[in-house]
Each structure stands twice: as C-alpha cells, then as structure tokens.
Specification:
By secondary structure, the protein is α+β, with helices and mostly antiparallel strands. 46% of the residues lie in helices and 18% in strands. It folds into 2 domains: 36 residues; 42 residues. Helix 1 runs antiparallel to helix 2. Bound molecules: zinc ion. Zinc ion binds next to loops.
Length: 79
C-alpha cells in the first residue's frame, strides 16, 4: 500500500485503544474470582479465567497504515 500524496510505501502501526469499559469489567470479574478462590478454589479459578478472557477479548488493537513521510493515515483494517 502506498501513500496517495507522496507515493511512499506506508508503514503499518498498531494503535492500542485506551482502557475500554469491557476491559474494566474483565478486571472486576477477575477480582470477584479472586474472592471466590478463598471459598472455593476451583470456582475462583474458573471465574478468574473468564475475567482474563473477557479482558483479552476486549483489548482492542487497531492496525493503522501511516505514511512515514507526511503522516497520512488510512484505516484498511477495522476490527
Ligand atoms: Zn505521504
């Protein structure tokens, strides 16, 4: 992929989204699981794993193509 302005090969950079609401929910689920682990270790581990899964799934990473010359940006991949 080339820049429309400079005809320079564009560079792919990944942009991490700022903390998402669902990322926070993932952390909260993890903490609930941590609490459960004292009462029932197996249930706690399952809930913690769920929290990690939710947090990982919602960690949005966007691939952005950026021109190294002029900084022109396009978004060929939207997740
Ligand atoms: Zn350019």
């Amino acid at each position: 992929m080339q820049c429309e302005i400079c005809k320079v090969e564009m560079v792919a950079i990944t942009k991490k989204n700022s903390v998402s609401v669902l990322g926070i929910i993932g952390v909260l689920i993890f903490l609930v699981g941590l609490g459960y682990a004292f009462a029932n270790f197996l249930v706690g581990v399952i809930i913690m794993a769920l929290g990690i899964f939710v947090g990982m799934a919602m960690r949005g990473e966007k691939l952005t193509m950026t021109c190294p010359s002029c900084g022109n940006k396009t978004n060929p991949v939207s997740l």
